[in-house]
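Quiz preparation item.
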């Protein structure tokens, strides 16, 4: 037999738990629901998979998708990553099917000047180079990422691989112009329904993005998870400053995303086969 006082305590706990759950559901429901599109603006052929997935066969090659993500809703057109366009990269890399990221976004129905925000997941050239192509956009980058790559990273020759000086200067100019915002660490909701997370350690302080949609949370992993294979094989990315941190980030993505299929890798061409085609090079993530 349950003592009356214990029964009252149990009842009170249940009432509070129910109220908390209702509040959480209401809060989730109050967030705007966005549409998410993956836009392929180029390919780099014959890329070694072993440079993407730790432990992969060095003989395997893949034509990787160079991708930006368009997030639409709540009166905003948000771009996650900005691609590349400066001429020096075409001298270093074989690039196929290139379309300037600002033109590729226009193919998806949004003019470059209509982009309201650009979230830079990290400062590597193929993700940050195009940040100055969108004249009315506010740029979002992790504070530690910005601070490191505009300063200490250049004190030694081995601590700024993949970072282009032109992109650093562009970021500084945008900051001086009052158009750059620094994300202060992990789990920051920078825009209603848009949250930035850290932990993948692809660069000094890379981030990935959670987006609230009608299907639940979509996680745009960017280079914190290059390919679906990273997640499926529990294999860290081959280029990380901290393997354990990268694996923890992938595990966390599984908890954040509404479904594993809504964790979107940074360079996997399979993304453009798995999701509904809107037009050539553009798919809707849902």
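Solution:
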């Amino acid at each position: 037999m349950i003592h009356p006082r214990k029964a009252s305590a149990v009842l009170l706990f249940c009432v509070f738990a129910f109220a908390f759950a209702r509040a959480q559901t209401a809060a989730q429901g109050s967030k705007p629901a966005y549409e998410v599109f993956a836009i392929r603006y180029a390919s780099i052929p014959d890329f070694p998979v072993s440079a993407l997935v730790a432990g992969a066969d060095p003989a395997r090659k893949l034509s990787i998708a160079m991708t930006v993500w368009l997030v639409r809703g709540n009166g905003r057109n948000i771009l996650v990553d900005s691609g590349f366009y400066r001429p020096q990269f075409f001298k270093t890399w074989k690039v196929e099917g290139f379309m300037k990221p600002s033109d590729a976004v226009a193919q998806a129905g949004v003019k470059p000047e209509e982009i309201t925000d650009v979230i830079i997941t990290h400062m590597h050239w193929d993700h940050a180079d195009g940040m100055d192509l969108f004249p009315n956009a506010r740029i979002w980058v992790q504070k530690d990422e910005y601070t490191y790559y505009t300063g200490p990273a250049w004190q030694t020759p081995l601590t700024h691989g993949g970072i282009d000086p032109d992109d650093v200067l562009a970021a500084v100019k945008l900051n001086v112009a009052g158009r750059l915002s620094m994300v202060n660490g992990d789990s920051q909701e920078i825009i209603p329904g848009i949250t930035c997370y850290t932990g993948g350690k692809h660069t000094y302080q890379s981030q990935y993005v959670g987006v609230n949609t009608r299907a639940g949370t979509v996680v745009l992993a960017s280079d914190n998870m290059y390919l679906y294979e990273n997640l499926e094989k529990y294999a860290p990315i081959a280029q990380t400053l901290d393997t354990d941190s990268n694996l923890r980030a992938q595990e966390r993505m599984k908890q954040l995303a509404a479904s594993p299929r809504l964790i979107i890798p940074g360079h996997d061409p399979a993304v453009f086969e798995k999701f509904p085609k809107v037009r050539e090079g553009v798919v809707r993530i849902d």
